[in-house]
Amino acid sequence: MARKDPRTPETKIKQLELELADRDRELLSFRKELAQINLQLERFINQIAGELKLAGVIQRSLVPTEIPTIPGFDFSTKFVASPITGGDYFDIFEMQDKMQFGILMSNSSGHGMASLFMSVLLKLTTQIEAKKGLEPEEVLKHMAREIQSNIKGEDLARVFYGIVDRRRYELTYARAGEVLSFLYKYAEDKLVKLDKGSEAIGKKTQNAYKAEKVKLDPRDRLIILSAGIINAVNEANEKYGEDRLHTIILERARSGCHDLRNEILFQVSHFADGRDYPHDLSVVIMEVKDKVIQLRKG
Length: 298
Prior knowledge:
Blueprint: H1 9-62, E1 73-80, E2 88-94, E3 100-108, H2 113-130, H3 136-148, E4 157-165, E5 170-176, E6 180-185, E7 190-193, E8 212-215, E9 221-225, H4 241-252, H5 257-272, E10 281-288, H6 290-297
Antiparallel strand pairs: 1-10, 2-3, 3-4, 4-5, 5-8, 6-7, 6-9, 9-10
């Protein structure tokens, strides 16, 4: 038999009122805490957005807008900043030996100012080491030692560095990590993917790099792209991928280097259909002129 509640209706109502008041106070406290958390979150988002925006502005200023005029070669370059993750940097520069010039493409992971800082380090160390006339693999070793102490967590730096010798029309290059690089052999109508190289530069990676050499013939095209190209996504969250890239390059490889560059970026933009790129997009295309090589051989 259930026990009878000794409380009067008035007492019960009073008790319920007290419990309701406690709940109201708890709810008010919770709302205040939630508002404070939302304010902190909003400030954090604004800070990150501000850093990314600032990083994008500075990143664009780092990438060269003018490429040196080098007899025997044409160049076409383009940098498209991502509003999500940046870190791309490329350069083409003459060396102390005027019959040689360097080509650099790099990407550093991370967000905002962290990836920007890595890009600045990559730029400075490459320019300093390249001026010493070192071979590409030695430049990468020096670069890795310089930046490893500044890498945080799982951040990585991916680098392609090559030297073109105009005396022999030969490219010597070394790579660290995934930087897409191809050589289109005009006479054979063949696209060759250059050696994948060593692992990306990280906090604890081993700095063992090796150089590869390739011969440059009339109308050959060197095509170097950051991984942001193949990582662009469509509505179904499908990546653009290397297969589509190969198809576009082979279809337009015999057109001018500016046309090829524009077609690659147009197709990636069409694929993404207005969606933000997860990573920066960078394209460097070098075309070997036919007439200069013929004159040299003559």
